[in-house]
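Practice problem: predict the structure.
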Amino acid sequence: MLAPAQLRALSGLLEQGLELAPPQREGWLASLQGDDAALGPTLRRLLARHAANETSDLLDRGPVFSGVEAAQGLQAGGTVGPYRLQRELGSGGMGAVWLAERSDGSLKRKVALKLPHLSWAPGLVARFEREREILSGLEHPHIARLYDAGVDDGGRPYMALEYVKGEPLDAYCRQRSLPVAERLRLLLQVAEAVAYAHGRLVLHRDLKPGNILVTAAGEVRLLDFGIAKLMQGDSASETALTQASGRALTLDYASPEQIRGDAIGTASDVYSLGVVAFELLAGVRPYRLKRGSAAELEEAITAQDLPLASAVATDAATRKALRGDLDAVLNRALKKRVDERYPTIDAMAQDWRRCLAGQAVMARPDTWGYRLARLARRHRVALAAGSIVGAAFVLALGFGATALVVGVLLMGLGAALWQARRAQVQARHADAQAHKAEQASRRAQAVQRFLLDLFRANASRQKDPLKARATTARELLDLGAERLATALQDAPEARAEVMRTLGEMYYELEMDEQAADFDRQRVDLLRQIGGRHDLRLAEALLRLAASLHATGHREQILPALREAEAILDAAGDTGSALRGELLVRLAQRYHNLSMAQSKAYGLQAVAVLRAQPVVDSDMLSTAMILTARAGAQLGDIGEAAALFRSAVTLLEGLEALPHVDLLLARGGLADVLMQQQQTAAAVALAAAAAEAAEAALGADAPALISWNARRAALLHAAGQRAPARDLLNAAFEAVLRVKGPQDTMHTPIVRISAARMAMAEGRLSDAEALLHDVLTVYREHYGGSAVLGSALRMQASLATALGRLAEVPPLLAEAEVLWRAGALRPWRLNRLCLDRARLALAEADPAAALLALDGVVAWPEADSPSPHPDGVERDTLCAAAYLRRGDLPAAAQAATQAVAALPALQARGSHLAVAAEAWLRLARVRQAQGDADAALAALEQAVALCREFEAPVSPLRTEAEAALLRLRGPKPPP
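Answer:
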């Protein structure tokens, strides 16, 4: 074991040796004198290992000095744990990797067996064990799998990982002379793997070509999470473990914050992958860091200006390919300041995909000139008709309609012109295409005429040019709808294009019925034009399904989706973006029919959409949100939280934030945090989500109104009763003003939140009136759904509390059928068991109550820490049942257990009703035992809690106050 003084000397000598060119090192080693000479063999071994493994070794971390290397003496044929070693694959400063297989013959699979050099160095072993913990939770097609882990008889830890037969990323590309586009596609595979790890709060922290292997089939495998660290929130700082074991990173790819030892987050992996991308695309690294002190390294990395990749690329073709967009993307990824880089790996990957597709990238200024240049590059032929588009654009500016409407109309025109020209080019090579070319040309001209006539009609109608310029988007759309009734009768395909545009614009303005009407017309027209197997018809049917979701015609959604599905199946389309959208719409529709099916469709949608060359972030985030919501309803709370976080990360990385989707993702995460009893975090996130949405969308946005109603319920549950009531009242007023009492989507959400709040306060008649309206809508529009089941269960609870016991069993039976049809996890059915127990107690049947309470199961600790309100309520009702049966010892045990759990429960949230009832039942038990003082103390606790939140008419408060009055006795006369 080396002494501290020797370690310091060895460190300084190693720095000197690394500054020398490799041919000079042997002479320098021979010149060492005295104590330095004694360190010569160790220095020679470390320098040789560095020279052999500097950029491609699987485990190179820089030297770790802790003593004699325990991995010496291993040889082929030897065993480590249950594995027989075959040959060494690589060796570095931290450990060695051997090709191995199980010696017991149970599996013939070859593995990469990872072994540390220094098994008795405490920091190194801890780091090794951490990698084992992290890798066991990562399952992704582009991350090497962890098969097994353990400690052998000699105390040496080992990990058996997937053996990847491949080449380092840089060598793979270099040997095949891959073009820039192919290299980008490999980098996208790496980005998928890293983004997956980030979604599970894991940083890699050592991304470099040697840790990225590519198989013969062109599949990437990301290796070595040996210095990965589980993130706390969105960053990770230096820990005692890191400090004890040495800073473990590869300096050439390290981020500035890693060099300085600052807190790091996902942006650090963005930087490292940016260095890998720079090297892979340009053929050289942006710079090489000198081996020196931390101060010298910090000075080098912060002072040196990075060159453009195109300026240092090794050949002319590569320089041309990198110039412009890719230069901008790499420059943004390698910003010195964290806040100037891409916020996520997904955001950088999106720009890589845009480069491949010839689209505008987020890394460059979003100016009209830049966007028009990208448009010109993608559609050179289409813009040969630029004079026509230019004329329409000038008219659009002159008449001042909303840019959203004008832009989409112009895009529709440009697409039609491009299709016409493409068909003409094809017609030159095949006479059979001539008719198609003529049709496309006519369609383009018809769309052009309609667009120009629309602006002219607006000018003519307004008379005053100033009024024409002030025309709103809604007015322009209504005028277009009016004119389309008689226009384009002789150009059905052009008519269908205009219908699509107008429908989309009405949808964006949340005028759902108008949007659905145009989408229906377009579907009917496309059936006539192209028949029932046209892919354009499938796309139109999906558009119609989206529009119908917010209307009172949901029964039409599933038939439209199944028709679209049949078209895609007949075309053999299993993995297109259109298939991904179909799966999203199915997940959306089944969300109110079967949570299990909704989640299954959602998972399929996520997989299909992630695999697209250019990812539709809006559609992918919608798939993630739907899948997470279904998972949360089923009871998969931890998984739902991870999906919501992934959706938030994806959406926050977009240049133009989709604020409604972001609100849904953040709101869903807040709901999940509440279920996990992280009350403070849930309330804070809910408020932040609402504030951001209101700033972007305005206070009357329907999505925000619905969310504020849900947020009021969160506040109420957290004990903030007055703010909750104020927020709910504002949401109620807004939803009636904006959507009206007959709305079937947003208004019921606000009403059921109000019903829950009234019920929690004991205002049972108010709750029942609100719930009646909700049930009317749910039965008509959400039949067979889990949300109908929840409303029925609430109605059953109300009927029990109001003493209408005969109504309760059929309501609970129907609710259970609906909930079980959704394949909910057992703990999600606890409420039904508790409601049945309350009914049995009201009917004076303690045996039936106890039988029902046997069905209450514990929540998984990973999803919600113990104690859980369900468990406390179960113990409270058990106490009531045992007391009614006359079993005082059992009643006392159950009541005491319920009250004992309250401090831990209330530390995570309010739960005042649960606590008040627990104290009341304990008081009843103590009174039955003859302990009046204990009963009085418990009753005072119950009454104080009831008065804090329960309305005077609340049955629970009435019972507690009456019991307290009886126990205290009548006041003496004055």
